[in-house]
Amino acid sequence: MARTIILAIAVTASMASLLQNTAAETTHVVGGDLGWQIPPGGAIAYVTWASMQTFSVGDILLFNFTTGQQDVASVTKEAYENCNPASPISRKTTGPAEFSLEAAGDYYFICTLELHCTLGQKLAIHVTGPAPQPSPGPSLPRTPVNYTVGGNIGWAIPPGGALFYASWASFYSFFVCDTLVFNFANGTQDVAIVPKDVYETCNINSTIAVFTSSPVKITLKFPGEYYFTSTYLSHCSLGQRLAINVTGTSTPAPAAPPPLPPPPPPGNRTSPAPVPPPVQPPPSRQPPPPPASVAPCQVVGGFYITILSIIAVALISSSVE
């Protein structure tokens, strides 16, 4: 049973990286490679898939299934919750089937074949209005982003094992100054920053830092690889661990200097006008620049934990011991 759940989550979540929403119309292949069928892990497969998407007006849902073995019906919320196929809004029996999302709101779909809905072949999504088109303008520095680890599931033993957090991380690009937010129930979980070997073996014999009060906010101060897990018994082995790679800040390249003026034509033999000596500017009264040790990004307010402070705590602790 656990293996089938892992397969379902892995397949559905991995497709998220291919289905990022853009300003143009997007076609969402329901379930990714899993398609539209009775999911091996139950209803959570389609719940997880939907949670990794952003649906907008004008998008299309594409249901891939074998004609004669499945169908897809658009139904009311009540019919979705009770798996009642009696009065569908619309029904399509030939695969692949497309549904256009023409208005904002909630949409519900089920398979009307016997027991298919009860066994998890149903889908609920929320559609938002079309995003406004941004006006063209100069490139601006990237604004730091807060990432809620695991989305709606948060930081817990995931239903699909370690592949769940691996798939979640593959959906994003992490940059210096971004922040990870770990949400969990105090007393039932914690989050630890650990070395790579501890992450890979789940042998919690050493940690860089452990935090027990939710939410934990960790600002990614430096590029490189980061590893997180829970120190609770068997939580890491059951998939509660995360590895990410952080790249440098994405800021636009400086503008190229203007080209030098062309030299005078060869026929012009007149002597150039004398150039006055340069005027020395008055002494600058601006304050001196900060020392090089100042962190590249600053955080104002909130309980933010930086890797710099974590390493400092770890070094102090080791020296005391």
TrEMBL record:
GO terms for cellular component: plasma membrane. InterPro entries: Cupredoxin, Phytocyanin-like, Phytocyanin_dom. GO terms for molecular function: electron transfer activity. Keywords: Disulfide bond, Glycoprotein, Membrane, Signal, Transmembrane, Transmembrane helix. Residues 1-24 form the signal peptide. Residues 254-293 have a biased composition (Pro residues). Pfam families: Cu_bind_like (PF02298). Residues 251-293 are annotated as: Disordered. It comes from the Eukaryota. The chain crosses the membrane at residues 299-320. Residues 26-129, 145-248 form the Phytocyanin domain. PANTHER family: BLUE COPPER PROTEIN (PTHR33021), PHYTOCYANIN DOMAIN-CONTAINING PROTEIN (PTHR33021:SF325). This is Phytocyanin domain-containing protein. It comes from Citrus sinensis (Sweet orange). The lineage of its organism: Eukaryota, Viridiplantae, Streptophyta, Embryophyta, Tracheophyta.
